[in-house]
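so the lab meeting is tmrw and i was supposed to have these ready like two days ago... anyway. pasting both below. for each one the top line is the aa sequence and the line under it is the structure tokens. i havent really looked at them closely yet so no promises
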Amino acid sequence: MNDDFAQYEEYLRNEKYLSSNTLECYMRDIRQYKDYMNSIGIYDIYLVNKSHIQSYLDKREEEGISPSTILRKLSSIRSYYRFLVEKSIIFNDPTENLEGPKNQRKPPSILTINEVNKLMDQPQGDNPKAIRDKAMLELLYGTGIKVSELINLNIEDVDINNSRIKCHSSNKERIINLSDRALIYLELYLKESRNKLVRRKNEKSLFVNFHGKRMTRQGFWKIVKFYTQKAEINKDITPHTLRHSFAIHLLNNGTDIRVVKEILGHSDLSTTQIYTHILDSYK
């Protein structure tokens, strides 16, 4: 299975042009699936049938993994087998007509304006870490960009003079205008903090950790969790919560949904319309 695995990774990178984060997600799902098959004595993809894949999904469900995550894993596995069929490595797709658990998606947590202000007020002081954390939080909420877009920003993507940033997501690029608050704290970070955190003169990452390397998703998640607890906000908050809250607050203030769609970078209006379904409960 290893040669096929390597070919699949090459296919996703060079033919599907997946972002590094999406690619890693796909490959992690397939590795976990492959490890499970090995654990039950199946080392050859030709021997896998629908019942084997169903047992893998059932095992994940028994472990308490959410339906949405199991559906994503199934999607990764299905993509893998479609590649194998397309390349004539196998001739039958064992995932065909295979259904995962029903995805009972609960509405995302939304912060009130007061809770957003409490969260933003938590990074205190003039030390490099506090200034960096404040800039990241203000930038994430003040623009509604994705967490992946935030941590993938480079110095060259920042245009302070025109108050905007350039974001890269998959193979797309978009220009985002900065809010006044985001601009203030981003400029402060660039002047007072970043140079004290970087270790290499040619470091291109905008936001770096204490090792002077690019901030990771996990690293930023810990930052959000720390300040959420400090602010005593009793909600299940992730970095993506700020993007959801940003969208709801725009709609609640009367911003046209098509404008919100463009700001968020959605390719389809139906994706943005999900927020209209939870707007009434927010009010």
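ok protien two:
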Amino acid sequence: MRILVVEDDRETAGFVARGLQEEGHSVDLADNGRDGLVRAVGQEYDVAIVDRMLPEVDGKSIVEAMRTAGRQTPVLFLSAMAEVRHRVEGLKAGADDYLTKPFAFSELIARVEALGRRSTDLRAETSLRLADLEMDLVSREVRRNDTLVDLQPREFKLLEFLMRHSGQVVTRTMLLEHVWDYHFDPQTNVIDVHISRLRQKIDKDFGAPLLLTVRGAGYTLRAPD
């Protein structure tokens, strides 16, 4: 799952992010309410974990803005505000669950996974398609022009991200964060190598290319004109 964590306490944020990544999830971090709000409203997530007390914009306002904007991302409030009235306020604001600090990570992951299942049920998305390229998210098979394309797990994850953002320019930073879970540039050619391999598999023998390089900006997956 792709998970947003909005938490201003660096130690807590790092602990939660590492634990979620070890469970196989992709994590975006925001350390203040303003950045958290921009991400929560402007991007797609399976689950958002939001602190109540945040600098610039508080957690309750973030959730209210998400719901006003039509974002139905399941939200788990993670907060030291433990009184019943605080939990009620959070849930009434539009949150789906509320966990108080201190907490056991095993309980956090159980709640997140439950919210993730709810998110999956809401979307009921089982496949992605662009022109004659189709990705089955259940069987994890990829076909172009009805021909099976054999992808490695990282290549599958890379293609899934590109297909979810088809028609958009995807930057190296976006790929590092969402496909490799790097929140810094390790100064390697890992992206170029994987893009080259992916292009060989989905474009080389199929006529019109779908995976294009946008010079100086990144890459885009686009249907032929």
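from a quick look at the 2nd one: The first strand starts at residue 2 and ends at 6. The chain is about 40% helix and 20% strand. will dig more after coffe
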